[in-house]
Amino acid sequence: MGGGVPTGLAGRRDARATSSSGMARARLVSLLGPAFVAAIAYVDPGNVAANLTAGARYGYLLVWVLVAANLMAVLVQYLSAKLGVVTGRSLPEVLGGSLRRPARLAYWAQAEAVAAATDVAEVIGGAIALYLLFGVPLLAGGVITGVVSLVVLSVQRRRGQRVFEAVIASFLLVLTVGFCAGLVFSPPDAGAVLGGLVPRLAGTDSVLLAASMLGATVMPHAIYLHSALARDRRRYDAEQRVRQGAPQTEVEPRRLLAATRWDVACALVLAGGVNVAMLLVAAHNLAGQGGTDTIEGAHAAIGSALGGGVALLFAVGLLASGLASSSVGAYAGAEIMSGLLHVRVPMLARRLVTLVPAIVLLATGVSPTWLLVVSQVVLSFGIPFATIPLVVLTRRRSLLGEHRNGPVTQVAAWVVAAAIVVLNVLLLVLTVRGQ
Q1: Comparing C-alpha atoms, which of 178, 176, 240, 219 is closest to residue 77?
Q2: What percent of the chain has pLDDT over 70?
Q3: Distances in Å between the alpha carbon of 341 and those of 93, 101, 131, 327, 396?
Q4: Which of 2, 91, 95, 227 is the most interior residue, by most CB within 10 Å?
């Protein structure tokens, strides 16, 4: 009979191993979610305007900008989440605790300007979608978008972060289908897409669009918010472990960071794919056509080229994008104020105040698509104020200990920050010279 393991014992060991593996996967899945909320910021209406304009005006020329921006976003969002996971504090909280009052107020002012620009893009996008779908006037549509975003935010307050994440993920799924449907019915030329991966620009306007696309992809408020979401996920994990009998003081940053890497990679690959899909749809179907520099014109052109069903899906995706991103933007603004000023304003009051600039701009009659593109340029100028402190802080041993950035990560992070600053300076110089 030999010394083999009895069949029954082996079976029990295999069952325990399978059970343990299943529990580990379940714990990993339970930690996913924050990056998918942050990813909504990467597919908001500002992205739609910038990507459609770039594709319709320059074809595949700026595909490389989206790919590069998404790679930057993966690194930046991971560093943001790592800060929240390891320290248990958000980026605004860390800065709020280290800056003196004048510097803290100045930093908060620029962060609020970025948040306001974000809100303008999101509310206007929702208003355009309601107009396309139901003929709702833009002004009324902006108000409706703001009200619905408040309802979505109430889910987070009443039902908790996990339910809020599920709602936002549902919006993300809807907009993914809506914005990618055109590729199914009319795939672009593979050779032209590969040609778009070669870095090049074509004058001031293309630089403006590149900066707009960068601002719409690596979004400052998403950096601030993701650290707060990761912080809250750490607290959630600690509570779950206490329920399971683990010591209350036990924290496992390494395990949480492993889950965070999966979370960021999955969420931003999805968001990046949607962005590229929008540009490819515009480049393949709208390039050279008149009247496609606005979302309304692009929607009509998509309907003419691909049919009313695809145009309807596009409009539904835009609505999901506007509603979800408006909620996430307001959430980010509240975290920025709380962390930097140590002030908690009721979400209703904050939502009403931040809604005013978008409504006023809609009432002026200025082209909504133009406002969306300009809002993304404003966001682009706010990126260094979020990325540079993030890179500095995540390198500090005193703050992150053994989880601080290693040499390779630190160099990559500085390259990303420098690229953003250089692009913004180039944008400013070319615009002033009028080249």
Answers
A1: 219
A2: 87
A3: 9, 9, 38, 21, 23
A4: 227
